[in-house]
Amino acid sequence: MSVADRRQREKLALRQEILAAARQLFAKEGYESVSMRRIAQKIEYSPTTIYLYFRDKDELIQELCEETFSLLTKKIQKAVSAGGDPVEMLKRGLRAYVEFGIQHPNHYRTTFLTPHDEFRSKDPRETPGARAFQFLLQGVTECAKAGRFRETDVNAIAQALLAVIHGLTALQITHPDCFPWVDPDRLINLTIDTVLAGLLR
Q1: What is the distance between the alpha carbons of residues 30 and 119, in angstroms, rounded to a whole number?
Q2: pTM for this predicted structure
Q3: Most exposed among 21, 49, 158, 185, judged by the fewest C-beta atoms under 10 Å?
Q4: Superfamily holding 1-54
Q5: Rounded distance, CA 200 to CA 91, Å?
């Protein structure tokens, strides 16, 4: 490996280290409470080093949100890639969403549970949450086209489903020990089956 290649790998590794530290701190302490200096302390580098990679906290959080959305999208796409009955595909997509949050709690906390300026400063339709919602809306639309739902307002259905699965995911992440939860698989399946049962013809 050449010197240039080694340096490039080291730069990429440090960039990922910065992102991982920021994600952990934002999830634990909140976006507003964490400074660039605090992130630098976490990885034992000077704040100047952080600024060589990221302009400010807004750029950092945007990068983290984009990474989360990319990972979430891949998981949902994989879950529905087999095709089949639109309702079953929707169930698999909803389950993939919840599983992602439970498997990646800091990603989910930082992107969907942490208020930050990055969301306020851009078109609401372009936030990671809004773009993730489009996948849900597409699944609901397919079910409606197939005549499977009694309700025809696909936006209202999708928003109701998002409220349910986001709530379930957030509870599992933020209050895992508040009381004896049933088996996660059973809870996820029961929640999704119950809410969809109220929509089916």
Answers
A1: 14
A2: 0.88
A3: 185
A4: Homeodomain-like (1.10.10.60)
A5: 13
